[in-house]
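Journal club prep — side note

Before the paper discussion, L.F. wants everyone to see what a predicted structure for a comparable chain looks like in token form. Sequence:
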Amino acid sequence: MKNILVLGAAGQIGSELVPYLRNIYGAQNVVATYRSTPLIPEIMEGGPCENMDAMDAERMMSVVKKYDIDTIVNLVAVLSAVGESKPTLAWKINMESMINSLEVARETKAAVFLPSSIGAFGPNTPMDNTPQDTLMRPSTIYGISKVAAELLGDYYFVKYGVDCRGLRYPGIISNVTLPGGGTTDYAVEIYYEAIKNKKYTCNLGAGTFLDMMYMPDALRALVELMEADPAKLVHRNCFNVSAMSFDPEMIAAEIKKHIPDFAMDYNVDPVKQAIANSWPNYMDHSAAQQEWGWKPEYDLGSMTADMLKILGARLA
């Protein structure tokens, strides 16, 4: 990667990915795009930015040519819980932004990063140690769009030679940006509420295990995959990546080690609970380990300590 275009730079991953990439590749070589949600000042002031709708293919092409982009990172998506309330909008945004990225990449010989998700799996997928290659029949429009993205990524690679790569991300926990409508959002919200109010009402039930990852690992995984030797990549655009698996009781117990009077109760959201129940408890990420050396650095304990330290200082 030399000149990188980040679509959806105002989102949870994008707002941290852009500074991360600029630190590695140079500020002027990472272009951040946004549509209606403004970018944080660090991004706006730290390098090139463009107001752009990812569903406008002509505009995307012009930006790619303007900056001589060789890698498109497409983070545009309507997430799982929001998608269930607006399925046609979710399909339109998720699919059109993705196909535009692939078409522009085909014409300009750029590489593409298309993130997938644990949402690509469904209730008939093995829940424990979910295989890299397995049955995928998701029950959400978000998940259906992610499976389509994986298949189209393979199609564009085989038919047109587009270097399309991607990760099946678990729930991602950030100490910078607030949640954006995902089923795993509770695992971010709980830290804020623990610091501010020392209590939290969880919308997923006890015993709901989900795969999770701390943002620093998520960013590093993206770069390591995109810089990996393509000759060693078998799965290319749909690697399982995992770091930790826990349920609400476990994260609450970890927080109590730092905030002893923290308390949690439950008010289960049936829509989010149904989605969570269809997703894996934890994924087998051995393919990522073997093909490009993936190894997470954070577990629940080290992540919790870091989250509370950083958020505690900021919220104080």
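L.F.'s comment for the group: Residues 102 and 274 are 32 Å apart (CA to CA). Keep this in mind when we get to the figures.
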